[in-house]
Design goal:
This protein is an all-alpha fold. The protein contains 17 helices and no strands. The chain has one domain. The C terminus is likely disordered.
């Protein structure tokens, strides 16, 4: 039954109605992304009730966690792209073999990083400039949440393997279970048991455990088209090289981008804990606004991956164009509504009772929402290049977005225009807009149509 369903998904992506294919993948991804975002939003909501220092601490250290996660995400992105292309070519044996290679790489990375980061956390939090209570809260939170990496990557590999086959519903349901547990544990541990920020971290960690167990069980079921066979996890040179070729640029680009976010946090923290809290709230709410665009971008990667694997480049291009236009239209309309100051103020007021924090966060959110339609171009085009395996393009754009355009704009607004904390707000939208324009130009140059790597035709058995 599972194998039959995967065949239906493959046929829809390769020859069915394109809009239906996009929506069938994107809508569950959007819901799934929303559920994942709710982990941090739930923490932010309850920490905002406890105090501004706790809220500032979690916002200060979250980019550190994201650097680690984004480096490992290179493995899962590579898995989704490579498996999708094998599926599009109807080479199911190599798709299964690739899934085993991806899982082995991800688990080695997750356990090693969790151990290293746990030990290095005190020095990292001190380097960020935290002191006093903010240092203590940040250290406690980060040391606990990094321990969930093996659990998180089990869930992520499950999502990547299913998404490569066009199935985004099961990952959505799995994350729904996690967020329900997290929403129950957050107030229970933080308020009832008075564990403060430690309760927020423990809730995030414990909520992932049941989902990870279910994901691992599902991945090892032999009645699924793509499944893990723990007896055949020996590394295969050709597939490891493919993973490095596709995954390493994504890992470097993503982690470099997150390092830029980390340094941005340092720049914001200069303006005080209230500015740090406002920056964190604005970013988290903005991440909700752009969820549809992120979901469509993921759909593009899957649709393009399978169609490129089947040598259907025109259909891949059609899927990209439809997805891009849907994203731009949705974000433009939604952004205009949310940029209205009374609406943005009401939204950020949910997460803080501090009047100064609310004022700064509302201004930040209003500016980002007005320009968020550029994310429609950015995310869909990133999906196009990822789906074709051209992750070196996404790496360069991701890195330059932060390290060149954002910091250059930040410097200009701070040093030349003397805009204060508003320099941070405008540096975000300007850098996003420039990067979207560059990606569109690269798309028009048809770089994505050039072969990115040579797929192995060997039978893995």
């Amino acid at each position: 039954m599972n194998i039959l369903k995967k065949e239906v998904n493959r046929d829809l992506i390769l020859s069915g109605n394109m809009l239906r294919a996009i929506m069938s993948i994107a809508i569950p991804v959007v819901i799934n992304s929303f559920l994942q975002t709710m982990y941090n939003l739930t923490d932010t909501f309850w920490l905002g009730k406890i105090g501004t220092e706790q809220l500032a601490a979690i916002n200060l250290v979250t980019p550190v966690q994201n650097i680690i996660l984004n480096f490992g995400t290179g493995i899962t992105v590579a898995g989704s792209v490579l498996i999708a292309q094998y599926i599009g070519a109807r080479d199911d044996d190599n798709a299964r073999s690739m899934a085993n290679q991806i899982f082995a790489c991800a688990m080695i990375f997750a356990f090693a990083c969790a151990a290293i980061c746990f030990v290095a956390t005190p020095g990292i939090v001190r380097w960020l400039g935290a002191d006093g209570a903010t240092y203590g809260y940040g250290k406690i939170y980060l040391q606990i949440v990094v321990l969930d990496m093996p659990l998180l990557y089990t869930i992520n590999i499950y999502s990547a393997i299913n998404q490569a086959q066009g199935d985004t519903v099961r990952p959505m349901l799995l994350n729904f279970l996690g967020i329900i547990i997290n929403m129950i544990l957050d107030p229970l541990l933080m308020i009832v048991f008075d564990l403060n920020i430690m309760g927020a971290a423990l809730a995030t960690l414990l909520a992932k455990a049941p989902s990870a167990v279910i994901a691992f069980y599902s991945l090892t079921r032999t009645d699924r088209l793509i499944h893990l066979d723990l007896r055949h996890l020996r590394f295969q040179k050709d597939k490891m090289l493919s993973i490095l070729r596709v995954g390493l640029p994504t890992a470097i680009g993503g982690s470099t981008m997150q390092l830029g976010f980390l340094l941005m946090s340092k720049n914001v923290y200069v303006y005080g804990t209230q500015a740090m809290a406002a920056y964190g709230i604005g970013n988290k709410v903005n991440s909700l606004i752009t969820l549809p665009s992120n979901g469509v971008g993921s759909a593009v990667a899957t649709i393009v991956g399978q169609n490129v694997g089947a040598n259907q480049y025109e259909r891949a291009d059609s899927g990209y164009k439809i997805s891009r236009n849907i994203s731009i239209a949705f974000l433009f309309i939604g952004g205009m509504i949310l940029s209205y100051m009374p609406i943005s103020t009401a939204i950020v007021g949910i997460f803080s009772g501090d009047a100064e924090v609310i004022g700064m966060a509302a201004e930040f959110l209003s500016i980002m929402a007005f320009w968020c339609w550029t994310n429609g171009i950015y995310n869909s085009t990133i999906g196009l290049f990822q789906g074709t395996g051209h992750t070196e393009v996404t790496m360069l754009v991701d890195a330059s977005r932060l390290w060149v355009f954002r910091f250059l704009t930040l410097w200009f607004c701070q040093s030349v225009l003397h805009m204060g904390v508003q320099s941070v707000w405008y540096s975000v939208v300007v850098s996003n807009g420039i990067s979207a324009a560059i990606l569109y130009v690269l798309y028009r140059m048809k770089i994505w149509k050039k072969p990115a790597f040579k797929k192995s035709g060997k039978n893995p058995r």
